[in-house]
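Issue 218. Parser rejects a valid record. Input:
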Amino acid sequence: MSISHLDTISIPVSNKNQSLKFYQEAVGFELLRDHRSSLMDRWIQLAPKGATTSISLVTPFAGMKAGAVQGLVVQTENIVTTHRDLKQRGVDITEISQLPHGRFATFVDPDGNGWVLIELGGCMTA
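Output the parser choked on:
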């Protein structure tokens, strides 16, 4: 037995409707699932187009609070274009920073969950 890949990351949010709108309309993630398993439980799953890993917008559970997830990394092939598109859709994103291995900018969702947008470049060695 071996683990094959990372499937879904739980993102704790305070308002699922607000977060769904942010991730769909501002960030551009595709909606994979939105259904209720009961009156209180709603499963919302989104992902970047073509991604194998997704996020699930969850009501915070034991040990979690809305906005507690930090440092999630998403990759782009053209950070300048993606950065411009995110800003035009209302995402409060930092300026692009240069590192030896690429460029990055950061943003947060309405609850403060933190994301890093990266464009890799150059040689990556351990």
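Fixed in the parser; the record now loads. Residues 16-26 form the longest helix (11 residues).
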